[in-house]
Description:
It is flat, with a radius of gyration of 13 Å. β2 and β3 form a beta hairpin. About 15% of the residues are buried. It has strands at about 10-15, 20-25, 30-35, 45, 55-60, 65-75, 80. The protein has no helices and seven strands. The model has no long low-confidence stretch (mean pLDDT about 80). It has one domain: Thrombin, subunit H. The chain is an all-beta fold. The termini are far apart. It has a four-stranded antiparallel β-sheet, with no helix packed on it. Helices cover about 0% and strands about 50% of the residues.
Amino acid sequence: MWTVDTIAAPRSVDLFKGRFLLGLKNGSLVDIPVSSDGSGRQTMVMNSHGDGEVWGLEVVNLPDGSMKLMTSADDNRILCYDVK
């Protein structure tokens, strides 16, 4: 077992192609590669989703080969992002 330090408590998580995507309590999204010792470098994807927590998180692969990220939060919105 290993741990990962984040800037806020994780509230939602998705695992996709060897990477964790975490929605944090402060509204931020971070991308972390899965590694055997938890030492993967974190990348901030987004600094905030409205005023608070990210509750829902999903990576969506579309038929045209593109990838989108969908989130829901306490701002009562569902947002869709182009990951690239």
